[in-house]
Amino acid sequence: MPSVVRNYIEAMSRIDPAIAVFCEAEQHKSEAAELARSLGLPCTVSTGNYAMLLVLTSERLELRQNGPGAPGGVAVDFASGLLRFRRLYGGGRKQPLAKAVGLKHNLHPTLLDATAGLGRDSFILAALGCTVLMVERSEIIAALLQDGLERAGNIPEIRPIINRMTIVKGDCRTLVQVPKQPDVIYLDPMYPHRTKSALVKKEMRLLRAIVGDDIDAPQLLEWALSQRAERVVVKRPKGAPGISGPEPTFVIKSKNSRFDVYKKV
Ligand SMILES: C[S@@+](CC[C@H](N)C(=O)[O-])C[C@H]1O[C@@H](n2cnc3c(N)ncnc32)[C@H](O)[C@@H]1O
């Protein structure tokens, strides 16, 4: 085995498969220490020993894989070019996501996004006029989302959208109370992809490294269907089997995904 490969393998095997908070900006040191304390993570000054880092830069909070050749960090950026494009040219109320949640002309359903993740679906739905309560059970992902909301709230162009989005940390099945019964519950649990395809994007790979595969999705669907919401919408990758449980009332297809819609009679 070439020595360069052996050295790399040795270096990688010394990495503790754990995550720490790292501060890149001197002026945010105490914020980083407070964040680490609230998440129960170490706050490190030397990055070498961790597989992943939650990095507080001078601009934002981002999740980074650590080590040689690691890709750039992932942050929640509601002002990104991609989300701007989806917001302005994504098809409005005619897009499959909007049809799945039942957006009609003057209807603005209230939504509970029970699997908020990086908040992109919630943002698109809030941009279309819905009021969205986002629930995220991973404290690390929720911290990224909170940071994204705070930064986006300072951007006049998207502030009205952000004002329709609220985040609650915790498992939606055990929340003591949901402030208001939503019209629609939206679910997009992690799907256990086994392929290393480039289609499984960096964001999804890092998200999965933190939250795992959401193998309790059937219980989540059962919980959602037991709530008073008129409709439950489940996002699945194209071609993936439905979550085990009752058959959906109807299905809406889009390019890479599918929405299984369960309507109460
Ligand atoms: C695939 S991601 C969602 C991506 C999101 N739709 C977006 O647009 O960014 C799934 C997320 O749901 C969260 N999740 C799964 N089950 C949950 C539950 N019972 N309560 C709260 N969050 C949950 C996971 O922690 C993960 O962050």
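^ S-adenosylmethionine complex. The domain at 81-263 is CATH 3.40.50.150 (Rossmann fold). The chain has a mean pLDDT of 89.
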